[in-house]
Amino acid sequence: MSVGARVTAGIVATGSELLAGRVRDANGPWIAERLGGLGVDVVEIVLVGDRPEEMEAALRSLADLDLVVTSGGLGPTADDLTAAVVADLTGRPLELDEHMEKVVGDIIARFADRLRWDADALADANRKQAMVPRGAAAIPPVGTAPGLAVPPGDGFRPTVLVLPGPPREVQGMWDDAVASAPMQALLARTEPFAETHLRLFGVPESEIAATLRAAGERTDITPLEITTCLRDFALEVDLRRRPGDEAAAAAHDAVVSEIDARHGSAVFSRTGQTIDELLFDLLEGHTIATAESCTGGLLAGRLTEPAGASAHVQGGIVSYSNEAKAHLLGVPQEVLDTHGAVSTQAVQAMARGAIDAFGVDVAVAISGVAGPGGGTEEKPVGYVCFCVRTADGAEIVRDPVLPGARGDVRERSVVLAMHLVRRILSPVD
């Protein structure tokens, strides 16, 4: 295959609830990321309502692409029209797939037995969901609606992948969808991109922009696809190129070298790992506890989100009041009276108290002024104190003023605390 072979795709998310703002489209970005990993360029994501003329117009607007993926509009109700619209557009009449009728029927029957649904209505719903465009591949359902992989039709160039609306079902059937014959025929024309995913903490976008300009002054970086964005208060820099493209490979090396030279200490991931994933790995063989004030348990919730977190998270204490700090964590009253609850001295005592209370290797303490009120000239809104301490006495203490409204301050505090834990567990950073 020649360098630069390109397969393009568009995504159509259907559902009037998306346009009304009642539901956020979770499928479009997820599908786009998966297609990118397969070497497919997603050039457009479209939201449309549940009206057939709108769906048809959206599909026709993407007719010059190689692939169109739809989500939503599959199911037993009157507004589930995607399969019929795709069948008409591709010139492939709907036909009953008897095998899929039985598969869907068995699934629905199990629900009917438990919920006492009307059998006649269920039979109609079952039949509707088992109608497949001629020549298309039916994808086994995760819920009750099968997916469809429809080859290009007369007068309609793209392959069409028709998926249901619930994200759980989309994600559950994705591997089967990719393995379908129409998708495999399409993917044979491309190959996965060579990708590098850098994650930096504490570097603003303006500095990365300057770094990229500097790299571009030394090397032509235009053959390289570069995207940057802020997510979870970290800067993501994604570099993508076609395998075998020597100009893009040279541009990649120039960009990575320039980022390392200017921001190497801020790069915490080179594989796209999130701080949550990285910290989970670093905590293997360690135990951790939290002592939180202004974040109200958000950090403990974040640390316990991954399955298997019980191997290292021992517990946490939300010590919102001074009395709780004193009684639950042993913060000396003298510290509270002299320095205040929001002080480096207080969080140092809180971290020591958490180590004593839980017998852990690492403790992290947070106390701050989240706002919108309560700030002073000395300790303004956004002033947050952190202490990460190990059982053997190593310690990192910080007291920045974090920007944003109350929710921003609390969320930024959680992320900063996680990065401080990362640093104490990876002292080479």
Automatic annotation (TrEMBL):
CDD domains in alphabetical order: cinA
Domain MoaB/Mog: 10-185
Family the UniProt entry places it in: Belongs to the CinA family.
Stored HAMAP family: CinA_B
UniProt name for this protein: CinA-like protein
